[in-house]
Amino acid sequence: MKSNLHPATYRPVVFSDDQAKFAFLTQSTAATDDTIKWEDGNEYPLIKVHISSASHPFFTGEEKIIDTEGRVDRFKARAAAAEARKEQLANKAKKAKAASTKKATTEE
Fold first, then answer.
1. Are the beta carbons of 23 and 52 closer than 8 angstroms?
2. What is the pTM of this model?
3. Residue 42's beta-bridge partner residues?
4. CB atoms within 10 A of CB 75
C-alpha cells in the first residue's frame, strides 16, 4: 500500500451555508483565505458552501431550487423551446396531411 497517501494537515475549519444561516466547525484540509470569528472566540478559516444538510431538500423535506449559476432557468427555457418546436411540427404535419387528403379527393 502507498505510504503518505492521506493528507496530514487537518485543521479546524468552519463551513458556512449562508442561505440557511447554518455553520459548523469541523476538521478539514480545504484551503481558503477567508476567516470567521467562531462562537468560542477563536478565529478559524471559513469555507462557504451552496448547500448543506440545513438547506438540502432530502433533509428538509421541502422542494427548494437553489440555482447559483442559472442552470435551472436555462433548462426551463430549453424545455419551453422544445415544446414550442414540437407543437409547430405537429401543426405542420396536420397541414401537410390535410393538403394531401384534399389533393387526393380532388383527383378522384
1. no
2. 0.52
3. none
4. 11
* SS3 label, residue 32: coil
Residue type, 61: G
Burial of 70 (0-12, 13-18, 19+ CB in 10 A): exposed
Strand 43-49 and strand 11-17: pairing? parallel
Q: Are 55 and 45 in contact (CB under 8 A)?
A: no
Residue 84 pLDDT: 95
List C-alpha distances in Å: 32 to 11, 12, 35, 47, 52.
12, 12, 8, 7, 18
> Mind listing the pLDDT tens digit for each residue in 9-42?
899 999 999 888 899 999 999 989 999 999 999 9
Residue recorded with cell 414540437? 86
Residue ranges of domains in the chain: 9-66, 69-108
CA 24/CA 1 separation, integer angstroms: 34
Q: Which residues are CB-neighbours of 55 under 8 A, at least 6 positions away?
A: 17, 19, 20, 22, 64, 66
Nearest in space to 48 (alpha carbons), one of 70, 33, 64: 33
